[in-house]
Amino acid sequence: MGPRKYGEIPLENLNKILASLPTSSRYWLESLEPVVLPKGTVLYEPDENIEHVYFLNNALVSLVSTNSDGSTVEIGLIGHEGMVGVPAILGGVTPYRAIVQMDGDAFRIHAQRLYVEFRRNPFLRDLLLKYTNAFIIQIAQSSICNCYHTLQERLCRWLLVARDAVCSDVLLLTHDVIARLLGTRRASVTVAAGLLQRAGLIRISRGQLTILDAAGLEAMACECYSILRDGIRRLQAS
């Protein structure tokens, strides 16, 4: 099945920024191109000009920082609540790699076309600026989390944020991918995930992780998750 056009996706499954637009300011949505984003697709490399901006419906995208020695750490996670390509409306380039971690549907639009609409459409401008603020909070909180919290706390936080981003308890991710995003060793993630499985909070199978007890995970996560979750809730309630 090919990608679904705007109007073919139920409102509850639509990207939250697009779904929040009042009817009177949706005229520009005909410029959106429906796309399917396969897992592993690199949308941007560091310091590249942004050609397209992506509004995700059910895909999951990481912004990843890479050191000179090749080690990586995730600095931001994007799902149906947001868009990939914030620098396009701020007049800059992205210093990070954007890579699809879970495949899914999205809408894309030329960055220049979105920037023009951003300038003239006050409803869209307000939504995108509020999202940008929420995303900056996510980057800052992730930095604090990576420095000061245990791997188990960070893993719980990451799983819960990913769950919220794709609205699913089933995450099609390997320990190796999660380890690279958290900036740690695969063996360490395997041990931490094994402890969570024995506690009945998750179920691990090949290439898949299922969250069985989200409330239990939240109880074991650091306070960063509640801060990030509340930021997104305020965004969607505004």
Please describe the topology of this protein.
Layout: H1 16-20, E1 33-37, E2 42-44, E3 52-56, E4 60-66, E5 72-78, E6 83-84, H2 87-90, E7 97-102, E8 104-110, H3 111-120, H4 122-148, H5 151-166, E9 170-171, H6 175-182, H7 186-198, E10 202-205, E11 208-211, H8 214-220, H9 224-237
Helix pairs in contact: 3-4, 4-9, 5-8, 5-9, 6-7
Structural key phrases:
238 residues, alpha+beta, Jelly Rolls
Overview of the structural elements:
This protein is of the alpha+beta class and 238 residues long. It has two domains: 11-124, Jelly Rolls (Sandwich); 150-221, Arc Repressor Mutant, subunit A, CATH 1.10.10. The protein is built from nine helices and eleven strands. Helix 5 (151-166) runs antiparallel to helix 8 (214-220) and helix 5 (151-166) packs parallel to helix 9. It is globular, with a radius of gyration of 18 Å. The two termini are 35 Å apart.
Query: What is the CATH H-level superfamily of the largest domain?
Result: Jelly Rolls
Over all CA atoms, what is the radius of gyration?
A: 18 Å
Beta-strand portion reads 15-25%
Mean pLDDT over all positions = 91
Strands of the biggest beta sheet: in what spatial order? Answer: 1-8-3-6
How far apart are the first and last residues' alpha carbons, in Å? 35 Å
- CATH class of the largest domain reads Mainly Beta
- Runs in which pLDDT lies below 50 for 5 or more consecutive residues are none
State the helical fraction.
40-55%
- CATH third-level topology of the largest domain: Jelly Rolls
CATH architect. name of the largest domain: Sandwich
User: Can you tell me the number of structural domains?
Assistant: 2
Major sheet: 4 strands, antiparallel
